[in-house]
Specification:
The protein is mostly helical and 138 residues long. The chain has ten helices and no strands. The relative contact order is 0.10.
Length: 138
């Protein structure tokens, strides 16, 4: 039910419902929090940006969950608005190694495209050449 509600909210202008959308990021059901992140990303504005920054700046368990949700939902507008914040970068780096390589490539490309090559280099997947050949001892 909550999932459907956030999906419906994503289709409406979110000026008055900003708090409701932001609160959905901490929902215990992953599909619901992803739907909330997608709704926020579609209706992104400075009010939502400020609210999310406020929710994650303490780097607590809820903040970690919110950052994980932003990454997994591929909410690019949210991600880019937070990318210059050191506290966000720290949480992304802590989580990014556990996501699919295509998501890591997506965000590295997005960051480079938006003039943040240092952060992009921190999260991009390591290529086979950079890792070197595996050593086999017999």
């Amino acid at each position: 039910m909550r999932f459907a509600a956030y999906e419906a909210l994503s289709l409406l202008p979110a000026h008055e419902g900003a708090f409701t959308l932001a609160a959905g990021l901490t929902d215990p059901v992953e599909n619901v929090s992803v739907a909330a992140a997608n709704a926020i990303d579609r209706n992104f504005n400075h009010i939502l940006e400020a609210g999310i920054k406020n929710m994650i700046k303490d780097k607590d368990d809820d903040a970690q969950k919110i950052v994980k949700t932003i990454i997994n939902s591929m909410a690019d507008k949210i991600f880019l608005s937070l990318a210059s914040e050191v506290y966000f970068q720290d949480m992304v780096i802590a989580h990014i190694s556990r996501v699919h390589v295509d998501i890591r490539k997506h965000y590295a490309k997005l960051l480079k495209k938006n003039n943040q090559p240092e952060f992009a280099d921190m999260i991009r997947p390591v290529s086979e050449e950079e890792r070197g050949r595996p050593r086999v001892y017999a």
